[in-house]
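Working notes for the structural subgroup meeting. M.R. asked for a predicted model of this chain before we commit to crystallization trials. I am recording the input and output together here so anyone reviewing the notebook later can reproduce the run.

Input as submitted:
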Amino acid sequence: MPKNSESAQAGFYPMRVQARYGSPVEKLYYSRSSLPGTPWPTPGAIAPGINPSPLDDLIFHGGKTVPQMGFKNIFLGSTRDWQQSDIDLIDASIARAMQERRLNNVMAQYFPGSSLSCDPLPPMILGGAKPAELDEPDVQKQIVALFKSGQLGRSDLGSTIFNLILPPGTLLRLGDAASLDGLGGYHGCVHDTDAAGQPVTLYYSANVYSQMMPGGGQNGIAAFDLSWKSVAATLYHELNEFRTDADVTDAIRTKNNDVLGWTSRQGRECGDQPIFAAGPNSLDLVFQEIIAGDSGRPLPVQFLYSNVVHGAEGPIDSSDSSQQGAISHAVLSGDKLQAALAPGSHTLMPFAAAIDTVIQQRLPELTKPGVVSVRPGYQASGGWITRKPAIVVTVDRKRDDLAPGDRLPETLNGFAVDVREAGPLQRLRGAHPALYAAVTDRARPEYQLPEFPLERDLNGRPLPAANLEAARAQAKPKLTYQPPAGVPLDSIEDTFTITCHASPEAGWLQLEPFLQGVNSTLTVGMYDFTSAHILDTLRGSLIGRRELNLVLDHPAPDRTQDQSDDATHDALEASLAGRLNFAWALEARDPHATAAIFPSAYHIKVAVRDGTSFWLSSGNWNNSNQPAIDPFNDPSGANAQLKTSDRDWHVIVTHKKLAALFEAYLKNDLNVADSHQAPVAAAGAAAIDALASLAAPDVPAASRIAQQFFPPRTITAKMTIQPVLTPDNYPQLMLELINSAEKTLYIQMPYITPSDKPESVVLAGLVEAIAKKVRAGLDVRLILSSFAKLPNIEQLQAAGIDNSLIRIQNNLHNKGIIVDSEVVAIGSQNWSPPGVTTNRDATLIIHNAEAAQYWESIYLHDWVHMAVQHAAD
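Returned structure, recorded in token form:
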């Protein structure tokens, strides 16, 4: 491989290096790693027969794995460069580690139907002068020379890896990456021919003698107190990555995913994620000395990634990788490791099983008249969740006039009984399960109930989840989503002009002139368009030969609408006639579409003007997201609408290339949808909307009046902007954004609905990433909307996000993330399972400190003045 070829384009390749957390090498490889070919689909689009797995889980791509392997350690330099004790300890410890039964039990999950073995070959000291440094061409040249000279022996080359171990002080390089910058080692292969001219493949690893340097810093990854231990841990990392992904070098060379063995969706091997997850101050969580069963002596190893516990895992007694076996995997990983790395259940509290036992034993005392359901949970006090375990009982109505025999006990077996009043959907679920399923299928995601696996009915039976499959028995044909050809969603570094602004104070003040400035064409993707003042402005702006391309969803009615989405379409059709190119979105529940791509929402809010600029937002074209007010010049006149209007973030970007990108995706959606349109009777649409209305809250929330209004800010500067779309690239980019936080992580999101269902795996991974930042001690804050009820807060607390980090802001519609006051994400993806995977949504990740700090000032204002710790049942 030519020098610099891989590291110069690290964003295109899977990892095959061991990198120290936070180092330049880690940033070069880990944060930019990816599969060499077509990206692996996220769980929402996964092929039939492949079980969805958490975001960092390893996926088998079909390439070579080596369950029965051998290795030979080759120590570079001469006997003058090595202490014999180091050689003996390294050689003996790695041989024992690769044969240790309880460590191999972790790796067995990647070799179904095969037994694992590892045979060490006699080590050798190469002799000769100690090299000052070694790059990969040097490594490959050395391996080929040893093979040609017969020094590699008669081993089975296809299943043997030759480990070049550098002497103290020698530097290792891989293109632009160096061991002084955090490179611990790497593995690969080189192709040659034998004496008969037959092709052979030689597998190798290169391993740094990791040590602290006299002048400061470290060469490699000095994870242990003694260098030989760090070398042994690096060898354990590389040998297991060879075992699970032997031909990664060929995958990089040919850009072919099918050559890979086991890697994550981000192209990371079994040793990579644990180092990153542990962080710079907790490497001892994954670099540990374990007690070997054969001798009782400690072995220095690096814990590797396990799909069963979805994180780093130490030695275990059972190789069972089934869901039943997950218990033994988790328990034997160690409490310290589990607390730091393993993602917990997102709905099941650690005490849930104990409380559920009490519920079943004393069910007659809990099933009083009016009780709807009972489950384990956290006790609520003063409208907020505490950390105290409780038996949560939901009742139809809270009443004070109950007879003594009809009252619920205050405690059972030492657990408080927390009584809460049911909402409309909870009552419907108890009384009419089939209707509940139909309503849940049609209702807006923010109205839907969080589900708890141990919630029981009056008979003690687990409550069934909403049977959406039955509700969708007459589902439309499903089309496979295809993005427009030749339009990659790459980040762009250039000079941009962006106008940052927020609703309710400045949304319409910027959107109105943007629409009025159309000269030729406006291309729009929109979830909801029900505002009369936006419709009137648009019709007035699109005069002469100006054209409108519009893809529109058909959601349930908005509480602030002036007209329906159907009426909006009809008005535009009448006004523009042949200058309107229109299609109803191919959304599974849209009555106007005969086929479906997006399962529950075409939720995007983007408008591209004249191919040169675009407006992107969290807000729809309705009255609550875009109120026609001017609180800067008429604050008293705006007050009434401010109480019912939403917080939204918007940005207008002037940049031809990025505008053309979004227009290409919107026009592709339009063209595909155009051939799957059907008329629908007004009565039929009204019946569907009426069904959805059963899930709406009884009383709409009222907003506080802001203490400060934030005028728009226009920034012209060189910056990097990353376009993000679902179902294209949102999960991996959002996970990377959250993982990049080092100081602060501020999130403003209407709701977060994690669960332990397969379709929620991406969302659960994002929630776990936040929880890791909480555990790392960062300043993490979440502002949710009034759609987040007490059960939602319980779920987040169970997932590791304490209630003290969460506040509720009425009429919050924003979906924004700010990292370290340097980077901001603004867009439309709600954090529901389809919202982060399979619906159509758009976000921009803007790498510009001025923009990030503009929205951070709004966020902190809302945290202090608009958000409270109080939620409804």
